[in-house]
Amino acid sequence: MGRLRRVVGVEAVPTELTEAHPGSAFEEFFRSEYRRVVGLALVLCGRAAIAEDLAQDAFVSAYRHWDRVGGYDDPGAWVRRVVVNLATSALRRRSREVRALTRLASRREPEQAALVGDDDEFWRAVRALPRRQAQCVALRYLDDRSTEEVAVILGIAVPTVRVHLHAARTALASRFGEQLDEETS
Amino acid sequence: MTVDQRARDAAATMREKLDAIAIPEPAAVLRRARHRRLGGGALAIVAVVAAVAVIVGVAGSGSVNRIDVAGQKGRPSPAPTTVARVPPRTLIPEIALRQLQAALEAWSTFPVHASPRPVVLTSDPVSAPPGGFRTDDSKLAFISGAFVAPATLPSGPQRADGYPVITAAQALAVMRAEGRAGGTVHPPAPLMITTIRLGASPFETDRGTRMLPAWLFSFQGVEHPAAVLAVAPSARFSPPFLYASSGARLGPNGRTATITFVGAAPGRGPCTSDYTVDQLASDTAVAIRVRETSSRGGSRGGGCSLVGYARHVDIVLASPLGGRVLVDATTKAAVATAP
C-alpha cells in the first residue's frame, strides 16, 4: 500500500508526533536569507520603515507556495523576484505603506531604526536610475549575483542584463564624475 | 575611484548595516500576515507572485493519489442543506495522517467545556492604531515599544464582557514588551500616551473577528488609539502555532464546513488542480488538511504561473464542531471560522 494507510472512520486517537515541523525548512531558509532580502528592498525602495515589510511580505508569499518554492534549486531567487516587484509597487503606490502600517501592529524589529537616515548617496543615485537598471545594480553588487543569476531572478535575458548594467554604470559614472571601468562579465 | 569600486564599497557598507538587523522569528512574521490571508493585501501579493512563477522552474506536479475522504470533492457546489452520511472508511496518505495526528496532539489540552470558552487568538494581542501614523518616527517609536505613560494609570474592573481582564499597567507592559521583542533598541523620541481607557476592539479569533475587551491607548499626534487585548491570559488559549493556511465557514448545524484556501485554478484545463480535505477529530479539536489530489501541468509542457485562486471544499464532520477548535494540520494553527 506504500504511502497510504487505511484508517477506519474519521475519528481517531492522536499519536506521538513523529516528524519534524513542516515549516522547519522554510524557517532555515528565512533565517539565512532575511537580511539580504531586506537589503534588496531597502536599496530599491529607500525607506527603512517599509523595507522589512516588503521583505516579510515576500517571505510570506514564499511560505504560501512553499510546497513548490521549497523544491526549487534556488528558492532565494524566487523570493528576490517577489521583493523586487514589491519594491516597484511600493514606489508606485504610497498606499502600500498604509497597509503595512495597519499590519505592522506593534512588534517589528526596532533595529530598523538604525537604518533610518543611512540613506547612502550611492543607493540614492541607483534609485534615480530607470527601474530595471536599479534592479540589476542592486542584485549584481549588493546581492553579489552573476549576470546570469540576475537574468533568472528578473526574468529577462542575459544580454539585456548586460545592457542595463552598462547603462547604469555610465549614468553613475557621470553622476559621480568618475571614470567608467567596465566589468568584463 | 571607479564606478565599479564605488558600487562594491557601497554594497559592503550596506551589508555591514544589514548584519545589525535582528532576524525576526519566521513564525511571528507569518502570524502577522495571517489575517490578510484572503484580503486585498494577500491577493495583491498573489498577483505579484503571478509574474514570478516561470522563473525557477516548472510547477511541480502534485500528489496523484485519487482518494476521496468523506466524499468531499473540491468542486464548487452550494452548501449542502442536509448532512451527508460520513463514509465509514477513509484512506489518508501517511504523511497527511501524521500531520493530522500531530495537530490534534498539540490541541489535546484545550478546555473545550470551559465557560466562557477561552479566546483562541489567531492574530496579535496588540493592534496598531488603525489608520497608521503621521510620521516615520511615531511608527518607529510604537514598534520599538517606546512610550511615555501618565504618572497614574486607570484601574479597571475585575471583569468585562464576561472575561477576567488585566490592568492598564499590565496592558502597557504587553505593548512595551511586544515592541521590544526584536532585540536592541535605537528608539526615536518615545510616543506620548495621552489617554488610556477600557473599551473594546476587534481581534481575530478562531471564531472569526470578535469585539473583545481592550485597553485603548491614545497617543499625541496619532489619530486613532492602539488596542491591547484585555482578556486575561487565564481566559485565553494560545499554543504557539500561527498562520493557518486555510479558513472555514461553518454550516448552521456546526457539522458542515466550507474550507477556503488558495490553490491552483479550478477546472479541467492546463494548470488546474483538484483538492480534497482530509480530517481527523478528537474530543478537543478537529484537524483538517487540504490535499491536492490531481494537478494538470501547463499546455505543451510549459510552466504554470503560481497565480493563487480562492478555492473551497465542503466537508462534513463526524460530529458537530461544538466548542472544539478547527485546526490546520499543516501548521497546527487554529483556523478562523465564520458562520
How many strands, what sense, and barrel or not for the largest sheet of chain A? Answer: none
What is the gyration radius of chain A calculated from CA atoms? 21 Å
Q: What order do the SSEs of chain B take from the amino end to the carboxyl end, as H and E?
A: HHHEHEHEEEHEEEEEEEEEE
Helix content of chain A: 55-70%
User: How would you name the oligomeric state of the polypeptide chains in this document?
Assistant: heterodimer
User: Number of folding domains of chain B?
Assistant: 2
Beta fraction of chain A: under 5%
Helix fraction of chain B, binned, reads 10-25%
Question: What value does the average pLDDT of chain A take?
Answer: 74
Describe the protein's architecture and organization:
The complex is a heterodimer of chains A (185) and B (339). Chain A is an all-alpha fold. Chain A folds into 2 domains: 23-118, no CATH class; 120-178, Arc Repressor Mutant, subunit A (Orthogonal Bundle), CATH 1.10.10. Chain A contains 10 helices and 1 strand. Chain A is globular and about 50 Å long. Chain A starts with a strand and ends in a 9-residue tail after the last helix. Residues 1-21, 94-99 and 105-119 of chain A have low confidence and may be disordered. Chain B is α+β, with helices and mostly antiparallel strands. Chain B folds into 2 domains: 50-114 and 241-338, no CATH class; 126-235, no CATH class. In chain B, 21% of the residues lie in helices and 27% in strands. Chain B has a 5-stranded mixed β-sheet. In chain B, strand 6 (191-205) and strand 7 (208-219) form a beta hairpin. The longest helix of chain B has 17 residues, at 3-19. Chains A and B meet through strand 1, helix 1, helix 2, helix 3 and helix 4 of A and helix 1, helix 2, helix 3, strand 1 and helix 4 of B. Strand 1 of chain A pairs antiparallel with strand 1 (89-93) of chain B, so a sheet runs across the interface.
